[in-house]
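Supplementary Text 2. Reproducibility record for the structural model of the 75-residue chain.

All settings were left at their defaults, and a single model was retained for analysis rather than an ensemble. We include the record here because the model underlies the residue-level annotations in Supplementary Table 4.
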Amino acid sequence: MKTMACISIMLASLVSISSYALDLNETFNELDKDSNGALSESEASEDALLHGNFSQIDSNEDGQISFPEFQSFIL
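Retained model, structure tokens:
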């Protein structure tokens, strides 16, 4: 019985994590107005937190925020 409860909890956690990952992807895609897979400083200005931390988030200093950079900052 305990094994089933643990499995149920693990499955619920996976669903929750997957849902959160989808939300991050949706948020990124909404901000990425030109759909090029990266956020320019102009696109990031739509969100005060991203805009205020743009240079910190842009870890490779290419002038844009990639999804992995966005994800690292949020998580």
